[in-house]
Amino acid sequence: MNHQLLKKLLHDLQTDKIGVPAAMERLRTLPYEDLGFASVDHHRSIRQGFPEVIFCEGKTRAQTVAIARGLLKKGGPLLATRVEPDVARALARLDRRAVYHELARAVVIQRRRPELKGDILVLTAGTADIPVAEEARVTAETMGSRVETLYDVGVAGLHRVLGRHNRLLQARVLVVVAGMDGVLPSVVGGLVDRPVVAVPTSRGYGSSFGGLAALLTMLNSCASGVGVMNIDNGFGAGCLAHRINLLGEKSGKE
Hints:
Elements: H1 3-14, H2 20-27, E1 33-34, E2 39-40, H3 44-48, E3 54-55, H4 61-73, E4 78-81, H5 85-92, E5 99-101, E6 106-109, E7 117-124, H6 130-143, E8 145-150, H7 159-162, H8 165-170, E9 173-178, H9 184-189, E10 196-200, H10 212-219, E11 226-228, H11 234-253
Parallel strand pairs: 3-4, 7-8, 7-9, 9-10, 10-11
Antiparallel strand pairs: 1-2, 4-6, 5-6
Helix pairs in contact: 4-5, 6-11
């Protein structure tokens, strides 16, 4: 249930297109729907501006499909993350508009594409970091932000990012994804006056400790205005960047 559907329901009730019993039936699962193994949060779109997102890792295919079916009944859109190919195929059978973003491991089902707003720039230090960056991009775009990407511009060839300095300055918010030494967010943070969302990835050799080295580097950044997500958390980065981006839209209208 989103704002638009709730407004239509209240309007239909006010104009006697539906009666109180029918309205009550539609509202019955407004807060959440109990599936036994999951409590599907149908109220989240009203509270946070976007429906509950399905984190598929650790769920069975049947569980994921049941949750997705419940969310789609309320009008969508649907975003599922960490989706394996067999689960993606099962979700596609629910709705022919399903799109599987293979690199991001995400499935998106939208009845209508949102009007994209603002300007988010997603950067990676290396090509191996792209899957996490793509999860951030798909998340922010599905939620309604305009996103561009700039990949493989890490500090091993610093001229690659310095040569795009003007583009960095144009973005409203930047998502910087890096594994290995995790230095790129500090470099970018020192070049711009915009919020930087840093995402450490688990890419690297043994002493990177599965992304812990990059995480600690980012947490200890000497650049100001850098916020750090958890390791490989592209979804969280995309969601946060989208919310920051929308704040810019609101302030521009004031």
